[in-house]
Backbone:
């Protein structure tokens, strides 16, 4: 009998490729334009780790919510983006933005 030939070793996945059985990760060029900028705090321009939605409908980093208070003695708080008065200072967690940021960071598409 002839000796059995060794099967070739499986090819190594390309750097950045998804493990077997998982969908490949997109590169940042395949993400919709403007998506990454929407995940940055408009005040700090850094990825939001604890995003909250303010009364102006905008999402901010919670640690920066004090900037929504406005200047002392200025009356009602104002939006830092539009300078319009805010109806209140209620900050609601933005679970979706947080999930997107964490997912893109895990995929190394966002620092």
Residues:
């Amino acid at each position: 009998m002839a000796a059995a030939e060794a099967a070739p070793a499986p090819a190594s996945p390309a750097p950045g490729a998804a493990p077997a059985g998982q969908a490949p990760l997109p590169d940042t060029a395949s993400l919709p334009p403007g998506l990454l900028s929407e995940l940055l705090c408009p005040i700090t321009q850094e990825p939001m780790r604890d995003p909250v939605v303010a009364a102006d409908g905008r999402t901010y980093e919670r640690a920066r919510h004090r900037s929504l208070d406005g200047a002392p003695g200025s009356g009602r708080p104002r939006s830092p983006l539009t300078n319009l008065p805010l109806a209140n200072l209620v900050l609601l967690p933005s679970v979706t933005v947080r999930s997107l940021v964490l997912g893109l960071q895990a995929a190394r598409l966002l620092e």
About this structure: The helical segments are 35-38, 95-106. Confidence is low (pLDDT under 50) at residues 12-18. Residues 50 and 62 are 6 Å apart (CA to CA). The domain at 33-106 is CATH 3.30.40.10 (Herpes Virus-1).
